[in-house]
Amino acid sequence: MSLWEYANPKKFMQVSARVLPVVIGLAGVSLTVGLIWGFFLTPDDFRQGSTVKIIFIHVPTAMMAINAWVMMLVASLIWLVRRHHVSALAARAAAPVGLTFTAIALVTGAFWGQPMWGTWWAWDPRLTAFLILALFYLGYMALWQAVDDPDTAADLTAVLCMVGSVFAVLSRYAVKFWNQGLHQDSTILKVGEADPIAPAYYVPLVVCIIGFVLLFVALVLLRTRTEIRARRLSALLARERLA
Amino acid sequence: MTALLIRDLRLAFRAGGGFGLGLAFFLLVAVLVPLGVGPEGATLARIAPGILWVGALLACLLSLDRIFALDFEDGSLDLLATSPIPLEGVVAIKALAHWLVTGLPLTLAAPVLGVLLNLPGPGYLWLVASLAVGTPALSVIGAFGAALTVGIKRGGLLLSLLVLPLYVPTLIFGAEVVKRGATGAGVSVPLLLLAGITAGAVALLPFAAAAAIRVNLR
C-alpha cells in the first residue's frame, strides 16, 4: 500500500468518485457557515465600516491563488520524475482554478481599495506580483492549449512551471525593490503578537479559508476527473479510427 | 562550438531580416514615444530609462522565434541534438549568437536614442552598463521560451506571452539602474542584482531549454 497506487487512473477515478461528494459537501458547509458568519454576524469595523468584510473572500482566494501554483509545481515535479499521467492532468486542471482565484483576489482587492485607499489599483508590490502571477497562469494554460501531443504538452508545461516558479519568486522580491507598498502586511500568521486581527473576524476567516481550500480541492478533483475522461474519450476515438 | 557560433552569426547577417530589424524597432520606439507623450524635456527625461529598457526588451523579443525555429524546420536541430556537443552547449551558443546580433547592437545604440529621449547626462554610462549586463539574460530567457515553443506552428504570440513575465525582474532592475544613475543615486545594488539574474539565467536556463528541445524533438 503506497501513495503511488492512487496515480493509477482507474484507482484514482474510484477513490475520487467516493471522496469528491464528501469534499464538495464539506466545502459547501464551511463556505456557507464562514461567509454568512463573516458577512452578517460580525460587527462593522469602526474605521473601515462594512468593507472590512471583503477580507472573508479576499484573503482565502489570495492564499489559494498562490497555493494552487505550488500544487501545480509539485504535480509537475511528480510528472517529470515518476511519469504519472494523473499528476500532469491534475496540474493542468488546477491552472484555471488558480487563475480564477487570482482574478477574484485582484477584483475584491480593488473593491476594497477604492473606498479605503481611494484608488482601484496601485502599483504596489503585492498587487503587481499578483498581476504577474496571473500572467504566469495565462502563459501556462496557453502552452497546454497550443501543443497537440498530450505528453509533449505535459513535459513542456512542467518545465515552464518550474522555471516560472523561480521567476515568480524573483519577481515578487524585485517588485518590492521597485516600489514601496500600500498593501498592509499579512496578519494571519501574526496572531498572538500585539495588535493582531480581532478574534471576531479571525474565527470566521479561518472557517472561510478552510472552505476555500476544500473548494479548491473539490474543483481540482472534478476537473482532473474530467481531464481523465477526456483523455479516455480521445483514446477511444483514436482506436475507432484505426479499426 | 566556435563553428556553430560562426555559422549562426553568418546566417543572421546574410539571411536578412533578423539582424537590424531589432535595432530599427528600438529606434521606432524611441521616436514614437515622444510623439505620443509630447516633447517636454522634463517628462521625457523622467521616463527615458524605462522607455529605453522596455524598447530594448521588445526589440529583443522580435527575433526570439528565429533562434531555433529555422533549424527545427530544416532538420539541422536534430543533427545538432545528435552531435557530440551537448545540447545545453548548443543552446548556450545560440543564445550567445542571438545576443551578439541583438543585445550587443542594442546596447551600443542605446546612448544615441537616449539623446532623443533627453536622458540626463550621468545616465548614459549606466544605460550602457545595465544593458550590457542585462541583455544576456534577455537572450537566454528568450532562448528558453523559443525552445518551449519550437514545435508550435505560428508560436510567436505564445512565445511573447511566455517570455514577457519571465522578463519582469530583469526589466525592473535594469531600468532601476538607469533611473538611479540618471539622478546620481547609488546604482551598485540594482546593478549587482541584475548581474545576479544574468549569471543565474546563463548558468541554469540552458539546461531547461535543452530539456524542452529534447521533448520537442521526441
Automatic annotation (TrEMBL), chain B:
One GO term under biological process is: cytochrome complex assembly
| Classification via InterPro entries | Cyt_c_biogenesis_CcmB (IPR003544), Cyt_c_CcmB_bac (IPR026031)
Question: What keywords are annotated for this sequence in UniProt?
Answer: Cell inner membrane, Cell membrane, Cytochrome c-type biogenesis, Membrane, Transmembrane, Transmembrane helix, Transport
Any Pfam family matching the protein: CcmB
Q: What the protein does? A: Required for the export of heme to the periplasm for the biogenesis of c-type cytochromes.
Name the residues that span the membrane: 12-37, 43-64, 96-117, 123-150, 157-175, 187-213
What superkingdom does the record give? Bacteria
Principal localization reads membrane
How this chain sits in the membrane, per its record, is: Multi-pass membrane protein
Give the UniProt family note: Belongs to the CcmB/CycW/HelB family.
Where found in the cell?
Answer: Cell inner membrane
Name the record gives this protein: Heme exporter protein B
Can you list the GO cellular component terms from the UniProt entry? plasma membrane
Q: From the UniProt annotation, give the residues forming the signal peptide.
A: none
**NCBIfam families hit by this protein:** ccmB
Q: List, in alphabetical order, the Gene Ontology terms for molecular function in this entry.
A: heme transmembrane transporter activity
